[in-house]
Amino acid sequence: MFWINFKYTLKALFHNKSLLFWTYAFPIILGMLFNLAFQDLEKKEARSTYDIAIVQNEAWQDASFYQEAMKELSSGDDPLFHIEYTSKKEANRLLKEKNVIGYLELQEEDFDVFVTSNGMEETILQYVADELTSTKDMIVDVSIKEVDKEIKKGNYNIQAERIEKKVREILDTEVNLQDVSLDNMSYTNIEYYTLIAMACLYGGTISIYIMNGISADISSKGKRFSVTPIKKGVLILSSLCAGFLTQIIGIGALLAFMLFMGNANFGDSIGNIILLSMAGSLAGLSLGIFVSSVVKMNKGNKDGLLIGISMLCSFFSGMMGMTMKYIIDTNLPILNKINPAAMITDGFYALYYYHNNERFTFDLISLLVFSAILLTISLIKERRVSYDSL
Amino acid sequence: MNNCIEVKDLVKEYKELRAIDHLSFEVKEGEIFGLLGPNGSGKSTTMNCLLSLLKYQEGQIKIFGQEMKPSAYELKRRIGVVFQDVAVFEELTVYENIDYFCGLYIKDKETRKQYVQDALDLVALNDYVKFVPKKLSGGLLRRLNIACGIAHKPDLIFLDEPTVAVDPQSRNNILDGILTLNKQGAAIVYTTHYMEEVEIICDRIMILDKGKIIAQGTKEELKNLVTMDEKVTVELDKDLPQEILAQIQSWEMVHNLSMRDKILEVQFKQGNYHLSKLVIFLKEKHIPYHKIYSELPTLNDVFLELTGKELRD
Ligand SMILES: Nc1ncnc2c1ncn2[C@@H]1O[C@H](COP(=O)(O)OP(=O)(O)OP(=O)(O)O)[C@@H](O)[C@H]1O
Ligand SMILES: [Mg+2]
After folding, report:
1. Does residue B56 surpass a pLDDT of 90?
2. What is the overall mean pLDDT for chain A?
3. Cβ atoms within 10 Å, residue A150
4. Same domain assignment for residues B201 and B290
5. Which residues, other chains included, contact A324 with Cβ-Cβ below 8 Å and sequence gap of 6+?
6. pLDDT higher at A303 or A172
7. Ligand 1 within 6 A of CB of B193
8. Choice from B18, B21, B43 to test ligand 1 binding pocket (greatest atom count within 8 A of CB)
9. In 3-state terms, what secondary structure has residue B231?
10. Which residue puts its alpha carbon closest to atom 26 of ligand 1?
């Protein structure tokens, strides 16, 4: 019963033209538009060096780690920053006259970031400052742990060399600050990340189609399913599998488009991207099932609601510029912690920007947990229902 | 014979409206049970309660001796339902639709193939297996809807107005099909507001109006409920004057009479020679007529007498 339902649901999905348009064609069309819109921008702005200033106060003089890091970021063939080391007053003046995109001032352990607008460049500065702070925290953390370990071993004669070596190892493997090259963070790629996230959430329309077909209060087909001996949960899960396959093929097509026609540069992480897209698709489908089973509305409105939610989630996750994601990450982090689109884009940032496998795994798991929670609620709600009215 | 459905004191209320009001009835194994009633009388509501699709306020429903509830999967396996609205996948062909729904009951592939074929034969859709629903006429679509509901060879079949808006050919096919299914052993609950159909195929009939049972029994039993025994219709040149009508009305065996559009209808109580008495009377009064004929009472007359209104819209 599981398989026959799977088979025919799949068949029905592949014969439903409007559904295929929204889940297959629409994201690709959007991708083409993005590609057109950003190609020019990219030629002009890619690989540029940003002018910034750093306030030379006492804290800065003592922060050898930050000094090192900034030196790395502002040297080489293609440096990220061109840095002006000045007084606070001067930095302010430079910013006002737009000679720099922003400046950093170290207060005790953390950077304050001063910018005048919230564009792409400013966001990069913010990210770098955050990144430096957290990296430093991590190093301090590691050092303390190493010292602790030595002490616990009874070794009070702490070997500074060994600790330094350990820290270097960690720095090399986990934090590739030298690698904050923005190859994978081009406008196009960033838009593509959110586009993939959006396409994943759009898969929810597949779920709504499925749920409409099997809910007795929505369609007469649903009545028919409700009088068969197949359990509602089995029915939903088997249809969900068919929806998942349909969705994954669509996302595959989207990725292929981006890679082969859309100038995307995903580097060598394609396996991880596929993994992330699969988890994202599951989250999108689960969201659709959840909306379907929890919200009492007619068919058309449910689709509208889902598309609205998808758009909003994509927007918060950085579809209209990653500044939005940054603003939410700093001011209302909870929102993007439960936003599946943000989990997906954050997964991409983890892969390409932070080079942080743990963060990537966390995003992946978040998506699975998100799906599991929504599915569980929906399944409980759909179990053995009779209706008040049909 | 055992009962396959037992309903006791069923009450179903929608927000304001009491759609089903203390309904009790039984359906016996192997019979065709007619649920007859005008639009809005509560036929579909009754059916949906029996199937546990609808919650109800009061009452007990047993099917094959067991309590019917949403999780009664073993019972559901033995039931087939044809809903009032067509319920098929637009994206799938005739064959696929039947195979899909049959497959939710029947696992074995070979058996299923045979069952789907039997269903196609029953509704005579063999020439259309590759068609999608959109390409089918209304009558054929209804037949597909039926095939999807009964392909798994259930022991108990519910049909909710399966012949509404169908051409006569499809209608005959559908009624024949239902009789065939019944001969193969299935009990059938047949819902309709066409009394002619009920008279043709049903063993026992329950008449519903506004959620209440008006009468139930075999059609002979139902017809015994009415005082009228014979209806004589006369087609005349012109309407008869009031005094003549009054004379006829005063005969002891006349139950009721009506004169409309040059047609006289006289309902007689039990007795003999009604027709000849009327013919002799008309001759004596020198009243010419074109046609005169006698009919036995129909279920419509039963309904009319019990509720004071016509069954048809
Ligand atoms: N979902 C609902 N909410 C409120 N009232 C309803 C609902 N469904 C049906 N009714 C009312 O309940 C009564 C019985 O309706 P039902 O559909 O059972 O009648 P029916 O005999 O099947 O009629 P028809 O021949 O038109 O199919 C009607 O008065 C109808 O208006
Ligand atoms: Mg009805």
Report:
1. yes
2. 81
3. 16
4. no
5. A315, A316, A317, A318
6. A303
7. yes
8. B43
9. strand
10. B39
Q: Can you list the domains of chain A with their CATH numbers?
A: 2-41+184-382 (no CATH), 49-179 (3.40.190)
**Ligand 1 touching residue B44 (CB < 6 A):** yes
Question: Does the beta-carbon distance from A223 to B148 stay under 8 Å?
Answer: no
Q: Are residues B84 and B15 in the same domain?
A: yes
How far is residue A309's CA from residue A275's CA, in Å, rounded to a whole number?
23
CA–CA gap between residue A15 and residue B253 (Å, rounded): 68
Task: Using alpha carbons, list the distances in angstroms from residue B85 to A167, A218, A365, A371, B159.
Answer: 71, 12, 44, 34, 11
Average pLDDT over residues B209-236: 84
Domain that residue B39 falls in = 3-223
- Cα A249 to Cα B227: distance, rounded to the nearest angstrom: 72
Q: Whose CA is closest to A255, among A339, A203, A193?
A: A193
Per-residue pLDDT at B43 exceeds 80: yes
Do B236 and B219 lie in one domain? The reply is no
Q: Which residue has the higher pLDDT, A325 or B103?
A: B103
How far is the C-alpha of B227 from the C-alpha of A131, rounded, in Å?
96
Residue B302 lies in a domain: no
In the predicted model, what is the mean pLDDT of residues A223-239?
A: 93
pLDDT at B240: 87
In a shared domain, residues B68 and B214: yes
A181 pLDDT exceeds 50?
Answer: no
Q: A333-380: per-residue pLDDT in tens?
A: 788 788 898 899 888 888 877 777 888 999 999 999 999 999 999 999
Nearest Cβ partner of A224 from B81, B92, B107?
A: B81
Assess whether B193 and B115 both reside in one domain.
Answer: yes
